[in-house]
Amino acid sequence: MNTTIKEIARKANVSLGTVDRVIHDRGKVAKKTKDKILKILEETGYKPNIYARGLVLNKSYTIAALIPDYNKGDYWELPSLGLNSAAQHLSQYNIKLEYFHFDQNNPDCFKEKSHVLLRSNPDGVIIAPVVNFEASYLCKKLNHLKIPFSFIDSKMEETEYMSFIGQDSFQSGKLAAKLINSLVYEKGKILIISIRNNSEFNKTLQKRIEGFNYFFEELDSAQKLEIEEFSIDQNISNWDKELKEILKSRNASGVYVPSSTVYHVARIIEDSQLKIKLVGNDLIKKNIQYIASGIIDYVIGQRPEQQGYLAFDNFYKYLITGQKVTRDNYLPLDIVTKENLYYYK
Amino acid sequence: MNTTIKEIARKANVSLGTVDRVIHDRGKVAKKTKDKILKILEETGYKPNIYARGLVLNKSYTIAALIPDYNKGDYWELPSLGLNSAAQHLSQYNIKLEYFHFDQNNPDCFKEKSHVLLRSNPDGVIIAPVVNFEASYLCKKLNHLKIPFSFIDSKMEETEYMSFIGQDSFQSGKLAAKLINSLVYEKGKILIISIRNNSEFNKTLQKRIEGFNYFFEELDSAQKLEIEEFSIDQNISNWDKELKEILKSRNASGVYVPSSTVYHVARIIEDSQLKIKLVGNDLIKKNIQYIASGIIDYVIGQRPEQQGYLAFDNFYKYLITGQKVTRDNYLPLDIVTKENLYYYK
DNA sequence: ACATATAATGTGCACGTACACATTGATATA
DNA sequence: TATATCAATGTGTACGTGCACATTATATGT
């Protein structure tokens, strides 16, 4: 049983109200009395009862999530699942989640949604900063309004974010390289194929490729494999044919796709019965079937659901329980393959 | 703002007490009234206010953990870390953790500690059932006393446990086989070396080995590798020499140690500068250095800290928030290697 | 019809906190 | 001396729930 305000008051020979004023530093207490009460608080290690506190405050918090729009089976569905799950678990604490979806290909859309978001006056904001410049503006605004915000997936160093939840892209690429290397085993050529669905410069992709190349640069030159890099834009017609052409003509032993769109390559490998080892990212539905059948050899997961869950949970911790929040949260790089696929789903 | 019992009562034209009886299924309510109230509860999606609930109950719960004794750096330190972390996070909810450590090699010790545990009259029990027969007796007792209990690490199917948190040992072995297979790549011999620190039959070890063998049985006979099995008892003097002898004489390309004691093999490989690929289990401190240096190629992790955290958290959920608890919780089989080691630590 | 048992329903209190409001005591001013 | 001022302290209420206890309605037996 913890000490209560009542006990403190009895020990100090004052009323509940006086203790209350000291605890909340509301003033109107004689210095002598205040010191006496503070001392007793210290000695007894008083901690407010969170139930009574929660009951009497009974505030309703709203967390806004500024996340890319998605179709079923896309990557961004997964962080949303985690966000939803956390929101549901914590709904009894009167903390709610509100989405503001934007089109990844349209920076204006991000800007517009930012404004709508700000007008809703949330108690916290979760941002997926895929559109850098506009996000920077939003962060400044939030900072000014003293609304705490978190990044998910990737972060913007120069802002005063409360927390970041994501992965280390460079290391992800390095790990992919190691896996490919163990698969093709000293013979053959390797392709890096980026399949982008927007024309923008993408930090995450870039860093993964850097990490991938770094791994091979560090190897003995004897073990080095030939690497070729390709970039395909899904907005261009016939991108599918082009991809097929590359896969068939280059006589590659292994392919690395540094994004969740690796299933496109898997489909072609399956259809054309090519003998190519394949490594990609993310455990999305469209990839799962190819992992199960062994066409995708390895996928590197980044626990997107957990990312979503943590992002929301951090606001609960911060706003409701008043706990400190870890600022940078790097989640493990999960290696997923046929044999351990089941327990990651 | 969520609906309250008061509102439900007003809508149903009854008193608070009647609604309360329906919610807690305490009987003494006319069927007609009960149905009416149930319908309203359903419609409004009533959820009890956790603060008010906690305030009025304000019980102090004690969870007992019956876990093997350990030295620093041993496997069982890790679930304890998770348990402690959960206990600390949830301390404000008046739920405490009390350990009862036993000696793995001494079934009598388990029995004795079981009795001490029962006398402490806990509100929930977490059991690591490494001593099967004695655990069975304890479970029956707990069942009779209506004290809920959970298993961690491995489970006993025939008991009425509240939840289990652990891994799929068979699949763990299968995954290890796949990794070894990709490492030695169609040439050479593979050894399975069990290093036991107690003389007892160990279910987990057995199942991992079964899974390991199963993987190779399923391969085309052309790709099959020669496999030899060894078992070493650490209680026998000179076990270290024997191990060294095996590693040096058998001309193996790969070794699988189906437990956390893989670091013993790693040490010998390092000292004797052998060229043997090595796969084992668990991310304990003694293994980490060998993963970092690449002597252990892969380790399969089972998130022991998370196991501990979940085990405790499940009791919080069950006893305090009244939520339903998932009965079987299989954690992912993490593949840990030099390149992704950092983010698993 | 009446007493009595029992089923059904209602009432009141406690939990610990936050905050609005009320009261007390001391000092200064007319 | 009476009164206004203001600092210091005290009191009361609400939050929503769980449970003990009180009350009312209905059925049963004589």
Automatic annotation (TrEMBL), chains A, B:
Gene3D superfamilies noted in UniProt: 3.40.50.2300, lambda repressor-like DNA-binding domains
Keywords: DNA-binding, Transcription, Transcription regulation
Record domain HTH lacI-type: where: 3-57
One example GO MF annotation: DNA-binding transcription factor activity
Superkingdom in the source lineage: Bacteria
Matches recorded under InterPro entries: HTH_LacI (IPR000843), Lambda_DNA-bd_dom_sf (IPR010982), Peripla_BP_I (IPR028082), SBP_2_dom (IPR025997)
PANTHER family named among the record's database cross-references: LACI-FAMILY TRANSCRIPTION REGULATOR, LACI-RELATED TRANSCRIPTIONAL REPRESSOR
Name of the protein: Transcriptional regulator, laci family protein
Origin species: Zunongwangia atlantica 22II14-10F7
Biological classification of the source: Bacteria, Pseudomonadati, Bacteroidota, Flavobacteriia, Flavobacteriales
